[in-house]
Amino acid sequence: MSLRELYIKGIKIDPNIFTFRFGCRCNGECCHYGVYTDLKEYEHILEIKDKIIPLMDESQSKNLSDWFEPAEEDDDFESGVAVGTEIINNKCAFLDKNGLCVLQRLALLEGEHKWKHKPIYCVLFPLTIYQNTLTIDDEHIDRLSYCNKYPVSDTSIFEACKEELEFFFGKEGFDELLNYQQEVLSQVHNGVLNNGNKK
Ligand code: SF4
Ligand code: SF4
Protein backbone atom coordinates (compact mmCIF):
# COMPACT_ATOMS: atom_id res chain seq x y z
CA MET A 1 0.00 0.00 0.00
CA SER A 2 1.48 3.35 -0.98
CA LEU A 3 1.88 6.08 1.56
CA ARG A 4 -0.90 8.67 1.68
CA GLU A 5 -0.04 12.32 1.36
CA LEU A 6 -0.64 14.41 4.45
CA TYR A 7 -1.48 18.11 4.48
CA ILE A 8 -1.76 20.02 7.76
CA LYS A 9 -3.02 23.61 7.60
CA GLY A 10 -2.65 23.31 3.83
CA ILE A 11 1.06 22.40 4.09
CA LYS A 12 2.26 19.09 2.66
CA ILE A 13 4.41 16.97 4.97
CA ASP A 14 7.61 15.46 3.55
CA PRO A 15 7.81 11.89 4.97
CA ASN A 16 11.62 12.13 4.97
CA ILE A 17 11.44 14.20 8.17
CA PHE A 18 10.72 10.98 10.06
CA THR A 19 13.85 9.17 8.86
CA PHE A 20 16.49 11.88 8.26
CA ARG A 21 18.90 11.70 11.19
CA PHE A 22 19.77 14.97 12.86
CA GLY A 23 21.55 16.16 15.97
CA CYS A 24 21.69 19.83 17.03
CA ARG A 25 25.08 20.24 18.68
CA CYS A 26 26.69 23.55 17.79
CA ASN A 27 26.14 26.97 19.33
CA GLY A 28 23.95 28.58 16.73
CA GLU A 29 25.89 28.67 13.49
CA CYS A 30 22.51 28.78 11.71
CA CYS A 31 22.05 32.38 12.93
CA HIS A 32 25.20 33.54 11.12
CA TYR A 33 23.35 33.76 7.81
CA GLY A 34 20.25 35.64 8.96
CA VAL A 35 16.74 34.60 8.04
CA TYR A 36 13.82 35.51 5.81
CA THR A 37 10.93 36.95 7.80
CA ASP A 38 7.36 37.29 6.60
CA LEU A 39 6.29 40.89 5.95
CA LYS A 40 4.04 40.73 9.05
CA GLU A 41 6.94 39.51 11.21
CA TYR A 42 9.13 42.30 9.83
CA GLU A 43 6.46 44.88 10.70
CA HIS A 44 6.07 43.38 14.18
CA ILE A 45 9.82 43.60 14.82
CA LEU A 46 9.84 47.25 13.79
CA GLU A 47 6.85 47.94 16.07
CA ILE A 48 8.75 46.62 19.10
CA LYS A 49 12.06 48.29 18.14
CA ASP A 50 12.11 50.41 21.31
CA LYS A 51 12.18 47.24 23.41
CA ILE A 52 14.77 45.51 21.20
CA ILE A 53 17.35 48.28 20.94
CA PRO A 54 18.28 48.41 24.68
CA LEU A 55 19.08 44.67 24.53
CA MET A 56 21.58 45.09 21.70
CA ASP A 57 25.34 45.24 22.30
CA GLU A 58 28.29 46.85 20.50
CA SER A 59 28.49 44.00 17.97
CA GLN A 60 25.02 44.94 16.68
CA SER A 61 23.58 48.02 14.96
CA LYS A 62 20.90 50.02 16.74
CA ASN A 63 20.06 51.73 13.47
CA LEU A 64 16.81 50.25 12.08
CA SER A 65 17.85 50.83 8.48
CA ASP A 66 20.69 48.30 9.00
CA TRP A 67 18.44 45.45 10.14
CA PHE A 68 16.72 44.25 6.97
CA GLU A 69 17.32 43.65 3.27
CA PRO A 70 14.85 44.93 0.65
CA ALA A 71 11.53 43.04 0.59
CA GLU A 72 10.91 40.47 -2.14
CA GLU A 73 7.95 38.41 -3.34
CA ASP A 74 7.91 34.81 -2.10
CA ASP A 75 4.89 32.49 -2.13
CA ASP A 76 6.28 30.39 0.74
CA PHE A 77 5.46 33.28 3.08
CA GLU A 78 1.95 33.86 4.37
CA SER A 79 1.75 37.45 3.14
CA GLY A 80 3.52 36.63 -0.15
CA VAL A 81 6.43 38.91 0.78
CA ALA A 82 9.71 37.98 2.48
CA VAL A 83 12.20 40.35 4.12
CA GLY A 84 15.67 39.02 4.94
CA THR A 85 17.56 40.10 8.05
CA GLU A 86 20.95 41.70 7.36
CA ILE A 87 24.30 40.20 8.34
CA ILE A 88 26.31 42.45 10.67
CA ASN A 89 29.72 41.35 11.96
CA ASN A 90 29.21 37.94 10.29
CA LYS A 91 25.94 37.21 12.08
CA CYS A 92 22.26 38.03 11.94
CA ALA A 93 21.49 41.62 12.96
CA PHE A 94 19.55 40.24 15.94
CA LEU A 95 22.24 37.91 17.30
CA ASP A 96 24.18 39.39 20.21
CA LYS A 97 27.87 38.85 20.96
CA ASN A 98 27.02 35.95 23.27
CA GLY A 99 25.25 34.04 20.51
CA LEU A 100 21.76 34.83 21.80
CA CYS A 101 18.85 36.12 19.73
CA VAL A 102 17.62 39.43 21.16
CA LEU A 103 14.09 38.68 19.93
CA GLN A 104 14.02 35.55 22.08
CA ARG A 105 15.70 37.32 24.99
CA LEU A 106 13.05 40.02 24.89
CA ALA A 107 10.19 37.50 24.99
CA LEU A 108 11.75 35.73 27.98
CA LEU A 109 12.31 39.04 29.80
CA GLU A 110 8.64 39.86 29.24
CA GLY A 111 7.61 36.48 30.68
CA GLU A 112 6.08 35.53 27.31
CA HIS A 113 6.52 32.41 25.21
CA LYS A 114 10.17 32.31 24.11
CA TRP A 115 9.26 32.34 20.40
CA LYS A 116 6.65 35.12 20.55
CA HIS A 117 8.80 37.60 18.59
CA LYS A 118 10.93 35.14 16.63
CA PRO A 119 10.48 34.65 12.86
CA ILE A 120 8.86 31.28 12.20
CA TYR A 121 11.65 30.17 9.86
CA CYS A 122 14.09 30.56 12.78
CA VAL A 123 11.86 28.41 14.95
CA LEU A 124 11.51 25.71 12.28
CA PHE A 125 15.16 25.39 11.17
CA PRO A 126 16.61 22.76 10.39
CA LEU A 127 13.15 22.20 8.92
CA THR A 128 11.65 24.68 6.49
CA ILE A 129 8.66 25.32 4.28
CA TYR A 130 9.69 25.01 0.64
CA GLN A 131 7.15 25.06 -2.18
CA ASN A 132 4.39 24.65 0.38
CA THR A 133 6.00 21.52 1.86
CA LEU A 134 7.38 21.08 5.36
CA THR A 135 10.75 19.56 4.58
CA ILE A 136 14.42 19.36 5.54
CA ASP A 137 16.45 22.52 4.89
CA ASP A 138 19.31 20.38 3.59
CA GLU A 139 20.66 23.17 1.39
CA HIS A 140 21.32 25.37 4.44
CA ILE A 141 22.44 22.44 6.62
CA ASP A 142 25.00 21.48 3.94
CA ARG A 143 26.53 24.94 3.65
CA LEU A 144 27.06 25.22 7.42
CA SER A 145 30.37 23.96 8.80
CA TYR A 146 29.12 22.34 12.00
CA CYS A 147 25.40 21.71 11.58
CA ASN A 148 24.63 17.98 11.68
CA LYS A 149 28.11 17.06 10.50
CA TYR A 150 28.34 14.17 12.94
CA PRO A 151 24.92 12.52 13.04
CA VAL A 152 25.95 9.77 15.41
CA SER A 153 22.59 9.28 17.08
CA ASP A 154 19.51 7.67 15.59
CA THR A 155 17.36 10.68 16.41
CA SER A 156 15.30 11.82 13.46
CA ILE A 157 14.93 15.48 12.55
CA PHE A 158 11.25 15.11 13.51
CA GLU A 159 12.20 13.91 17.00
CA ALA A 160 14.71 16.76 17.31
CA CYS A 161 12.07 19.36 16.36
CA LYS A 162 8.97 18.15 18.21
CA GLU A 163 8.56 21.23 20.38
CA GLU A 164 8.93 23.51 17.35
CA LEU A 165 6.45 21.51 15.28
CA GLU A 166 3.83 21.52 18.04
CA PHE A 167 4.31 25.29 18.33
CA PHE A 168 3.83 25.70 14.57
CA PHE A 169 0.95 23.28 13.93
CA GLY A 170 -0.74 23.31 17.35
CA LYS A 171 -1.67 20.23 19.41
CA GLU A 172 -4.17 18.85 16.90
CA GLY A 173 -1.83 19.24 13.94
CA PHE A 174 1.03 17.76 15.92
CA ASP A 175 -1.09 14.70 16.79
CA GLU A 176 -1.68 14.23 13.05
CA LEU A 177 2.08 14.30 12.57
CA LEU A 178 2.54 11.64 15.25
CA ASN A 179 0.03 9.36 13.48
CA TYR A 180 1.74 9.97 10.15
CA GLN A 181 5.09 9.13 11.73
CA GLN A 182 3.75 5.68 12.67
CA GLU A 183 2.51 5.12 9.12
CA VAL A 184 5.81 6.19 7.58
CA LEU A 185 7.95 4.13 9.98
CA SER A 186 5.79 1.07 9.42
CA GLN A 187 6.35 1.39 5.64
CA VAL A 188 10.08 1.82 6.23
CA HIS A 189 10.01 -1.29 8.40
CA ASN A 190 8.23 -3.21 5.64
CA GLY A 191 10.76 -2.05 3.06
CA VAL A 192 8.24 0.07 1.11
CA LEU A 193 10.13 3.29 1.90
CA ASN A 194 13.86 3.93 2.21
CA ASN A 195 15.45 4.65 5.53
CA GLY A 196 18.40 6.97 6.10
CA ASN A 197 19.48 10.47 5.32
CA LYS A 198 18.32 12.18 2.15
CA LYS A 199 21.37 12.86 -0.02
S1 SF4 B 1 20.42 23.75 13.96
FE1 SF4 B 1 22.48 23.27 13.20
S2 SF4 B 1 23.56 25.23 13.02
FE2 SF4 B 1 21.74 25.56 14.31
S3 SF4 B 1 22.44 25.30 16.41
FE3 SF4 B 1 21.69 23.29 15.74
S4 SF4 B 1 23.48 22.19 14.90
FE4 SF4 B 1 24.00 24.40 15.06
S1 SF4 C 1 16.25 36.42 14.16
FE1 SF4 C 1 17.22 35.51 15.95
S2 SF4 C 1 16.98 33.27 15.72
FE2 SF4 C 1 16.57 34.23 13.73
S3 SF4 C 1 18.53 34.14 12.60
FE3 SF4 C 1 18.41 36.15 13.64
S4 SF4 C 1 19.41 35.84 15.64
FE4 SF4 C 1 18.95 33.82 14.79
Report on this structure.
With 199 residues, this protein is of the alpha+beta class. It has two domains: 1-24 and 130-199, no CATH class; 27-125, no CATH class. Helices cover 32% and strands 16% of the residues. The strands form three sheets. A four-stranded mixed sheet has the order 1-2-9-8, with helices on one face. The chain has a three-stranded antiparallel sheet with strand order 3-5-4. A two-stranded antiparallel sheet has the order 6-7. β1 (7-8) and β2 (11-13) form a beta hairpin. It is globular. The structure holds iron/sulfur cluster (2 copies). One iron/sulfur cluster binds next to loops.
Radius of gyration: 18 Å
Instruction: Give the distinct bound molecules.
Output: iron/sulfur cluster
What can be said about the biggest beta sheet?
4 strands, mixed
State the distance separating the first and last CA atoms.
Answer: 25 Å
- Into which percent range does the helicity of residues fall? 25-40%
Count of helical stretches: 7
Order of helices and strands: EEEHHEEEEHHEEHHH
Shape: globular
Mean pLDDT: 93
Total number of strands: 9
**Category from helices, strands and their pairing:** alpha+beta
Q: How many structural domains?
A: 2
